[in-house]
Amino acid sequence: MVNETFALAVPEFHRLSRDIVRTIETVIDGKPDAVQLALTVLLAEGHLLIEDVPGVGKTMLARALAKSVDCTVNRIQFTPDLLPSDITGVSIYSQGDRKFEFSRGPVFANIVIGDEINRASPKTQSALLESMEESQVTVDGNTYLLEKPFTVVATQNPVEMEGTYPLPEAQRDRFMIRISMGYPDEAAELTMLRSRELSNPLAGVAPVVTAEQLAAMILTVRNVHVSAAVERYTVSIAQATRRDRELRMGASPRATLHLVRAAKARAALDGREFVLPDDIDALAVPVLGHRLVPASRGNSTTFSTSDMTQIIRRIVASTQVPLGVFDPV
Question: Which domain holds residue 248?
Fold first, then answer.
């Protein structure tokens, strides 16, 4: 993106992050937590999964986040007939040059919006696996690097709704955070009716952060300090999920890494240069909830999101909070 990038001072980082939040909130009414988590993922160089019923603003949040930053943005509408090559790109034979030339797909952008990702087949969903983990695409034996930063913001409807395919565990594990929008409260819904009666609020959204500034914000997050005690605390939570009797599959090592990265972004957004156990606690549910697989409950096959939330909170509450958080950098 830029040849030389420097971390930002705390006041400048806060000014830019507030500008992004205010811009998104001109489109998304009454959802400050969802907006904050979306920004957390972007600054932590992760991927965001927004899951909820139709019509609650999932795509609006994704588009508002993308439009607030001056980066390249592509949108992919996932449908049952979508092919992997429609995402990654395809080699096309040129009659003039008598050779194959690679035509890049929409995954080649800083921010990729995957709308209704679970309406495509598992084969098509898997086209994103390499790009989300390694920031590259391999087609016909050739590897092409993606732009930096690279973030996928995907929306999906609940799996029990018609026309959906469940995301494979490997795909879910690549998303740093999963959030739900939820229905707006009465005041927010009234505001939405009045503000959108004559115009689309997205039409007035303009970038408030340049590509260079975003790169500097990401570097600032990378430089946030994580003490050895907080690292041990994070690992203890992940290890506990793997031993828990209510879970068939616990948190992966990737989940542990994502939890720390997200905590660093949360600390920076809170004006700190170090991570606290509170950051880990606050992000445990959105980072771990979509990755864990519950154990079967006798003849019951139902397991709600609230059930998983309770399990994670129980595990976090039973994990000893570390001392020595402020060990030397």
Answer: 225-318
Residue-wise pLDDT for 102-112, tens only, equals 899 999 999 99
73 phi/psi in degrees, rounded to 5: -135, 135
pLDDT (mean) for 115-121: 89
Among 219, 253, 277, the domain-final residue is: 219
In DSSP terms, 209 is beta-bridged to 69
The rounded distance, in Å, linking the Cα atoms of 206 and 194 is 21
303-306 contacts: CB < 8 A, separation 24 or more? 305/180
Domain count of the chain? 2
Are 270 and 302 in the same domain? yes
Whether 326 is in a domain gets the answer no
Q: Which of 198, 219, 240 is the last residue of a domain?
A: 219
3-state DSSP call for residue 33? helix
47-98 tens-digit pLDDT: 999 998 888 889 999 999 999 999 999 999 999 999 999 999 988 887 877 7
Phi-psi region of 145 (alpha: psi -120 to 50; beta: other; left: phi over 0): beta
Domain presence at residue 22: yes
Element of type H or E holding 179? strand 177-179
* SS3 state of residue 225: strand
Model pTM score: 0.90
- Amino acid identity at 136: Q
Give pLDDT tens digits for 34-48: 999 999 999 999 999
Q: Using CB atoms within 10 Å of the CB of residue 102, give its burial: 0 to 12 exposed, 13 to 18 middle, 19+ buried.
A: middle
Q: Measure the CA–CA gap between 155 and 50, rounded to whole angstroms.
A: 5
Peptide bond into 149 cis (omega under 30): yes
Residues 172 and 297 in one domain: no
In-domain check, residue 65: yes
Q: What is the pLDDT of residue 2?
A: 42
CATH of the domain at 300: 1.10.8.80
Closest CA to 47 of 106, 111, 141, 127: 111
Report the CATH number at residue 58. Answer: 3.40.50.300
